């Protein structure tokens, strides 16, 4: 909310609170902004090793002075099928110098941001590095899991498209394909739920499960690490290892599914000249 400051002489000054936990980067646009076109400044944040760690953007824009914010974090994998919280931070960037490259309509400019430790707390480089490395390791596992689940989601959408095309066909061949499609869709659902947990049939709104899955173990390890103020413990590393093991097993199951059941199903659909596969 805006701040309200008494300045005397029966006047007040109202303005936005100072940004906290982020870098506000000013940039100036000399050319008039075309209100009918797409006006969005995108930014890429690079580490001292020239590794892309985050992407940022800002809209709307005005001619003249504008600002774009970086929350001093690194990008993290979005949970497959989960809600994307725009206020959630990624992995906190380590102290150091970062390059921010801004782009608008093909034109680029860059600046540097120096990230320093929070002066309110005692800084231990060894602890911060270990914590950062553990989160990055876990994020690689989350990325593999999300990729496999997203692939299954795309396959479900493809099967739905086949079923839509078969709705008006009443031939025996079409009926057989409908049965095949329904069966393969159920198999995809079962496979996905083996990694995410099965949602109760009549559940409305939020729900929780005690089922041990790859996704539950990734989430458990992430929550424990984000709450850790000290160097990751042996238990933290064990949680990561369990999440990695379950994710690897799920990846193999998905690979086997696409090598066997999905390949046979795809051949039948292509024989029927329903070319909807990518």
Walkthrough of the structure:
The mean pLDDT is 87. The chain has 278 residues and is an alpha+beta fold. It has helices at residues 125-166, 172-196, 214-226, 234-259, 261-271; strands spanning 3-8, 11-15, 23-29, 41-46, 52-58, 64-70, 73-74, 91-92, 96-104, 107-115.
Brief digest:
This protein has 5 helices and 10 strands, in the order ββββββββββααααα.
As a percent range, the share of strand residues is 15-25%
* Mean pLDDT score: 87
> Rg, please?
25 Å
Described by the principal axes of the CA atoms, the overall outline is globular
- Which structural class do you get from the secondary structure elements? alpha+beta
Helix percent reads 40-55%
SSE succession:
EEEEEEEEEEHHHHH
Q: Strand tally, please? A: 10
What profile does the largest beta sheet have? 4 strands, antiparallel
In whole angstroms, how far apart are the ends?
47 Å
Low-confidence stretches: none
Arrangement of strands in the largest sheet:
5-4-9-10
**What's the helix count?**
5
